[in-house]
């Protein structure tokens, strides 16, 4: 089982049980056109990303770090999101040092469900991902457009600070690394934390 799936298997049941057992307490301040409740938020992502093993071995399981800004005008409407993430791993193959990296810029729509202190969400959009592969000092890279879909749950610790869990997938990418056609599609699990303002 790859690293991203292990994260999902461990933390998804915890998130779901928290959602089921959490009281329906409302966020301390309500939304509205004249409300003081934050409409934007900045999140930091820390997690793991698993790419295609056939193309990316031995660096298919990569640590990931990212930033995301999301904005929503009303609790029952759609908002938008933009983000920047990077991932990487190092390994050995046939005595050579191997390094794999990705960098990604994305943007799309986001939907929060409700205004409770436990807030599930879904997001989807388009991504531009750059993939790099280095074997023994010889490197190659390629860039592709792709689609992404992610979802998770945020736990409001205060009106301005949250913790969360996010599950994400990238699909439809097409890259050529070292003359080998493949993709930079991935599954990802991450912890998030951030600030609302």
How do the helices and strands line up, and which of them pair or pack?
Layout: H1 3-21, E1 40-51, H2 53-56, E2 61-71, E3 79-93, E4 96-112, E5 118-135, E6 138-156, E7 161-171, E8 175-177, E9 180-182, E10 186-196
Antiparallel strand pairs: 1-2, 1-10, 2-3, 3-4, 4-5, 5-6, 6-7, 7-10, 8-9
Q: In short, what is this structure?
A:
The protein is mainly β. The protein is 12% helix and 61% strand. The longest helix has 19 residues, at 3-21.
Structure description:
By secondary structure, the protein is mainly beta. The chain has one domain: Beta Barrel (Porin), CATH 2.40.160. Helix content is 12%, strand content 61%. It has helices at residues 3-21, 53-56; strands spanning 40-51, 61-71, 79-93, 96-112, 118-135, 138-156, 161-171, 175-177, 180-182, 186-196. The protein is elongated, with a radius of gyration of 18 Å.
Keywords:
single chain; 197 residues; mainly beta; Porin; 8-stranded antiparallel barrel; two-stranded antiparallel sheet; 2 helices; 12% helix
Task: Supply the number of helical segments.
Answer: 2
Would you list the SSEs in sequence order as H and E?
A: HEHEEEEEEEEE
Number of domains: 1
What is the approximate shape? elongated
Class, according to the CATH hierarchy?
A: Mainly Beta
Give the averaged pLDDT, no decimals.
85
- Unreliable spans are 11-34
Structural class: mainly beta
Strand content: over 45%
According to DSSP, the number of beta strands is 10
Question: What is the CATH architecture term?
Answer: Beta Barrel
Distance between the termini: 38 Å
Q: C-alpha Rg, in Å? A: 18 Å
CATH fold-level label:
Porin
Helix content: 10-25%
Most strands sheet: 8 strands, antiparallel, barrel
Widest sheet: strand ordering: 1-2-3-4-5-6-7-10
